[in-house]
Amino acid sequence: MSAEKHIRLLSDTVINQIAAGEVVERPASVLKELIENAVDAGATQVDVELVDGGRRKLVVTDNGRGMNRDDALLSIERHATSKIRAADDLVRIGTLGFRGEALAAIASVSRFTLTTRTAEDEAGTEILIDGGRFREVREAGCPVGTSIEVRRLFYNVPARKKFLRAPATELNHARQCFLVHALSRPEVGMTLKVDEKESFRLPAGDDMLHRIGALYGTSLLPSLKPVSLRMHGLKIGGFAADPTVHRRGRGDQLFVVNGRPAAAPLVYHALNRAYGDLIPKGRHAIVFLFLEIDPALVDVNVHPTKREVRFRNGAEVRDLVIEAVREGLRGSGSGADGAKASPAHSAGWTAPAAGRDSKTFSPLPAAGVFRTGELLRTEGAERRASAEEGRQPAQAPADSPAPPWQNARIRGQFGGLYVLLEAEGGLIILDPHAAHERVLYERFMREALEKRVQSQGLLQPVSVELPPRDAEIVARHVSLLVEMGFGVSEFGGAHFMVDALPDYLREGDPGELLLEVARALEAGGGHGGTETWAHEAVARAACRAAVKQRDTLRTGEIQGLLDALTRADMPYTCPHGRPTMIYISRSELDRRFGRAGG
Predict the structure, then answer these.
(1) Which of 57, 99, 454, 508 could form an S-S bond across to 51 if both were Cys, CB 3.0 to 4.6 Å?
(2) Topology (CATH) of 12-202
(3) 187: alpha, beta or left, given left = phi > 0 and alpha = psi -120 to 50?
(4) What is the mean pLDDT of residues 352-375?
(5) Are 305 and 22 in contact (CB under 8 A)?
(6) Which sign, positive or negative, has the C-alpha torsion 14, 18, 19, 20?
């Protein structure tokens, strides 16, 4: 009697359910695969219906090319696809789907109905599958395109079904999936029906801003800054929200590469770097970015669900995203391709309506690139100083509207800190400390990054001993530290002699500063680590040097601070993300006092 075999071939049903474990996590996963198939089929209209968060019923109907009977039967087989033919095709994938696993996997864990017809066929084809078991194929009367109905997801896999969340949770995931795909393809009309009620009806050929407004609310639109950059074979476009609008999570950060909604850790890192000090820690900006790149330079076959992409030239992509977003936030709205900001997004300073996570009415800056000015100078004093030096005073770009605080009337200071300003159409409350921090931070930071830091010699050189690992790092970067304004030299072993510090850090402890730099260099490398450390150190220095609470400011000093703030790159937040000022419109005051419409 032969020994029992321990290795066996799995049945197709088990294989499909294993694939389902990788591809189908929840109703939102099913929705993602079906919308991608619809888009790949050339659909200009995609309609989605959900019942019970998609757990009981999920239907996706499109007007794409459809399939004939033979193709429809092949489509539910594993690894059957029209999108790639050979392994080399994986290097240049131009479609959203390509593996040919999704329909077979979905059909294996649900009651599945596929109805489809091509323009050439008089009758369509309907296929019924129950938990991976083929039930019936028959002719059906239907329009050109494809409709797939998925009922009772995971009904035959109890171990998977118990991991589904409450209907509301599953609905939120499915709605987010719909939103992401609707934003990534504004040329495609889309509808979403939830429990027999229509939630969204988005027309085909939509303008991107109109679609963002339809999905997020029009109150978000005034805060969006155009992002546009074309360089080194990459094209980056989209919108980045003003730093005064931010969220707790990354759910409102959309990244689309070659038409594919995707995630990429380096892009999230780039967005953190681009916003840097402009938003509070733990908060995330609202960004809609679209990147076009040679498909050969991006790998979409990284994750079973095609959730992430990887770039061959990742560092370059990261740096270009940072540059594109920063330029957009500065208000220039143009990149190497010369695309200009639309008038709707350069309308100046306005107060966005309260939305999710909105706590205050926060001012938005006028569009344009502002230059950092000197602190606490009146405009007249600057003109006099300029005349003495034989130069023209700094001016904002001619095409940039003046921010309203520039011409606001100063009404006084209260609470030992805040300044009241009367502006056209409303009231401005200025925090001089936060505003002063912003001005000092930008001046110090620019000097640090451009290596124009003035050094302050110490009265007595200080010997510093560092842990061996940190000492090794500092020793490798002594020349870089000198460029940053440190007077530092090796003194043998783990010892260093420090005889000068950057001017803005002259009150700091040499040992602690060297240790901070060493840790930053270890985490981020030479230039990246320098920028990270410089931001944190400069922010602290600016905070220490800024005017303090209870400091009484003269009218000329307040005016000088406002002039300097006008020339700041990012005048609306301090380096820690707090607002420099709050704007309350006259209409909001009237509403609060019961005078609305009066």
Answers:
(1) 57
(2) Heat Shock Protein 90 (3.30.565)
(3) alpha
(4) 29
(5) yes
(6) positive
